[in-house]
Amino acid sequence: MSNTKDSQNPNFITLEEAAEMKEGTRVTFIPGMQALYAEALKNICFVKGVSLIRALHPLMGINKQTGEDRQAKLYELTSQSSLPTMFHDDERPRNVWIEQLSLAERIGSENSPKLIPSNLQDRIDMFGLCAVILGEDGLVWNIRILSDNPLARKYGYSEEASSKAIDKIVEIIKMIDARLDAQAKLDSPYLVGKSLSAIDIYWATMVMSTLPTPPEIMPRTEQNQGMIMWFENNSKIPSIENVLSKKIQEHQHYILKTYCETPAILGGDPL
């Protein structure tokens, strides 16, 4: 599902090359890192049978040699700097998860699972759950502001916001747990309806931030070992640890192992 030199060492083209191409689907990644939104989009595209060309996403900060903002070109191309950016053919770039999902659904294989439900109520439920996980003040947003750092400040870190973040994270995890209970009573292993939808993939990926996955799902690299440690620390916060039920882990492993590319292919430098 990607342009590769071999199965564990994918090629990465430059951002400029990705922007200049007129054909193909290009997504920006940081080699060796399972940045959550990029990893989720990669999983969505894998399920949809969309072949990806990986492009290098510029890191935050200033280039010490040139004194220039490393993300200046990205901002010039897309008017934002978040990861990932998705290019397809000669269409405009997509940077927001809901637009990326809609694009993947449109260009995916005819035989791939439909990730946006046709049933209107199921679609409402799916997008509502996605917003709680992926949107502003959602799961990932609050995980990012647990501590003060450059990324947290980008997402509005303050002592007051951070002090409320854990309770919001716990509330979301408990809501998903209750949802899995309700679905199990309907003999469904999925979060919405009777079949796989985008929320299953997004949740299984994003909950890595509080429920780290084993190496057979998420390989360890020199680049991601700090992130893995951060995820593990999140999972040990008592109030979060108390609500991470076995059924949440079972759902995560089922979705990732059954539908996604595991072990994940990250590039970078394996440990």
Give the termini distance in whole angstroms.
23 Å
Strand order of the largest sheet: 4-3-5
Total strands: the figure is 5
List the helices and strands in order.
EEHEHEHEHHHHHHHHH
Strand content: 5-15%
Counting copies of identical and different chains, the oligomeric state is single chain
- Mean pLDDT over all positions: 94
Number of domains: 2
Low-confidence stretches: 2-7
CA radius of gyration is 18 Å
CATH topology of the largest domain: Glutathione S-transferase Yfyf (Class Pi), Chain A, domain 2
Main CATH class of the largest domain: Mainly Alpha
Class inferred from helices and paired strands? mainly alpha
Give the fraction of residues assigned to helices: 40-55%
CATH architecture of the largest domain: Up-down Bundle
Largest sheet: 3 strands, mixed
Q: What global shape is seen? A: globular
Number of helices: 12
Structure description:
It is a single chain. This protein has about 270 residues and is mainly alpha-helical. It folds into 2 domains: about 5-105, Glutaredoxin (3-Layer(aba) Sandwich); about 120-260, Glutathione S-transferase Yfyf (Class Pi), Chain A, domain 2. The chain contains 12 helices and 5 strands. The strands form 2 sheets. A 3-stranded mixed beta sheet has the order 4-3-5. Strands 1-2 form a two-stranded antiparallel ribbon. Helix 9 (about 200-205) packs across helix 12 (about 245-260). The longest helix has 27 residues, at about 160-185. The relative contact order is 0.15.
